[in-house]
């Protein structure tokens, strides 16, 4: 009689190790400065540094970075394989929506800037997703 062994713990451990290695490419100061440079001009009446808004931006920048890093295994000849592009768009969109909902719920700004906010949040998330993709791709190339 054979035994059934679950591979899930091994997969999770491998994924955790990949994320730890990928995060070595990232500096917290870079996330903070990018978030501040992007969002402070939009939130004219909001003190950004050391706020809950900064924490949300950092959390979701990390999430976007790791998501991009995970997609890096599907990069072929320097470009994300076509069949994974839609999944990447959905991942970016999900993170963008989460950050936008959080920001629009806590920060009161004129309605004219709300449309700008959505665009800026998308730029911020996309930037960090692409940085993760680049970092992951670089790691994969170094392994070859």
Automatic annotation (TrEMBL):
<protein>
    <recommendedName>
        <fullName>DUF2521 family protein</fullName>
    </recommendedName>
</protein>
<dbReference type="InterPro" id="IPR019667">
    <property type="entry name" value="Uncharacterised_YbaK"/>
</dbReference>
<dbReference type="Pfam" id="PF10730">
    <property type="entry name" value="DUF2521"/>
</dbReference>
């Amino acid at each position: 009689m054979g035994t059934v062994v679950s591979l899930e713990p091994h997969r999770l451990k491998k994924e955790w190790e990949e994320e730890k290695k990928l995060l070595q490419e990232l500096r917290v100061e870079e996330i903070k400065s990018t978030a501040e440079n992007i969002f402070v001009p939009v939130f004219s009446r909001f003190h950004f540094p050391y706020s809950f808004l900064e924490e949300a931006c950092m959390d979701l920048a990390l999430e976007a970075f790791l998501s991009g890093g995970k997609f890096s295994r599907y990069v072929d000849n320097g470009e994300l394989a076509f069949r994974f592009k839609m999944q990447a768009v959905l991942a970016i969109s999900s993170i963008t929506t989460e950050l936008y909902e959080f920001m629009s719920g806590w920060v009161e700004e004129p309605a004219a800037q709300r449309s700008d906010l959505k665009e800026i949040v998308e730029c911020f998330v996309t930037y960090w997703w692409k940085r993760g993709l680049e970092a992951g791709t670089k790691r994969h190339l170094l392994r070859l």
